[in-house]
């Protein structure tokens, strides 16, 4: 069966990185100083909000925009239920990782354990998102590259958790967010490099994209960025997480 050649819309690739950086920065500022929050209810509110921000904003939105950046000469749609479930998996994985390290135990073993749970969850989100693709083709994976993408997800998660609980200034958080965004994108595009798309049926059954990828990507980007900026502004007003130094 013939392989389907694909390329990327680099405008959408750039947007996927930007949204991942902004989501990472927002999450890092939300988590800064959380070890000083002694009220359990307030701590869990912060943890859940940070998990939503990083799971949906930094990871899932990056993944979805990155998927829209994929250009293939076949009709591509996405299963809405599986796509939504992949976002939920990302949020739950982030909540598990953040909660395991929020109690003050930042030992290497605990960071590695929490990062492994979180990384596997992030990788599961990615491959669930891939499985949500509906097209006249089947996806075949290179085992070695797939394993590498999962390893990148785990390493990135461990680094993210370490940075999340490190007392840092807003400038340091921005540097960390740039690194985290690069790691999240690295995991995603490594996972994409592991995939080969094999056409099912006759080549003349292939059609154009059934969705306007750039338009949808811009919509997702706009919604997520608006949400993240809103969270940052609310945090700034509360004067709790955006102080330059803690």
From TrEMBL:
What this protein is called in its record is MHYT domain-containing protein
Keywords attached to this Swiss-Prot or TrEMBL record, sorted alphabetically, are: Membrane, Transmembrane, Transmembrane helix
Top-rank taxon, per record: Bacteria
List where the protein spans the membrane: 12-34, 46-69, 81-102, 109-128, 140-162, 174-194, 214-236
The record's section on InterPro entries has: MHYT_dom
Give a single Pfam family match: MHYT
An example Gene Ontology CC term for this record: membrane
Q: Where is the MHYT domain?
A: 8-198
PANTHER family, per database record: DOMAIN SIGNALLING PROTEIN, PUTATIVE (AFU_ORTHOLOGUE AFUA_5G11310)-RELATED
Query: Which PROSITE patterns does the entry link to?
Result: MHYT
**Upper classification of the organism:** Bacteria, Pseudomonadati, Pseudomonadota, Gammaproteobacteria, Lysobacterales
Q: Which organism is it from?
A: Oleiagrimonas citrea
């Amino acid at each position: 069966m013939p392989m389907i050649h694909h390329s990327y819309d680099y405008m959408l690739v750039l947007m996927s990185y930007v949204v991942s950086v902004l989501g990472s920065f927002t999450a890092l500022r939300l988590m800064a100083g959380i070890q000083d929050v002694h009220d359990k209810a307030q701590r869990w509110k912060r943890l859940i909000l940070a998990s939503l921000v990083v799971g949906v904003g930094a990871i899932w939105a990056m993944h979805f925009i990155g998927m829209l950046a994929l250009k293939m000469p076949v009709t591509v749609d996405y299963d809405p239920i599986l796509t939504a479930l992949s976002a939920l998996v990302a949020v739950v994985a982030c909540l598990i990782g953040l909660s395991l390290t929020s109690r003050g135990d930042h030992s290497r073993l605990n960071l590695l354990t929490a990062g492994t749970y979180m990384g596997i969850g992030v990788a599961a989100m990615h491959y669930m998102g891939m499985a949500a693709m509906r097209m006249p083709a089947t996806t075949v994976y290179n085992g070695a590259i797939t394993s590498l993408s999962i390893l990148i997800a785990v390493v990135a998660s461990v680094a993210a958790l370490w940075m999340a609980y490190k007392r840092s200034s807003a400038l340091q958080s921005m540097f960390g967010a740039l690194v985290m965004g690069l790691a999240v994108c690295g995991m995603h595009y490594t996972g994409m490099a592991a995939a080969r798309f094999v056409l099912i049926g006759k080549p003349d059954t292939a059609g154009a994209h059934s969705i306007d990828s750039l338009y949808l990507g811009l919509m997702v980007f706009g919604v997520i960025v608006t949400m993240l900026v809103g969270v940052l502004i609310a945090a700034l007003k509360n004067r709790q997480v955006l102080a330059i130094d803690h």
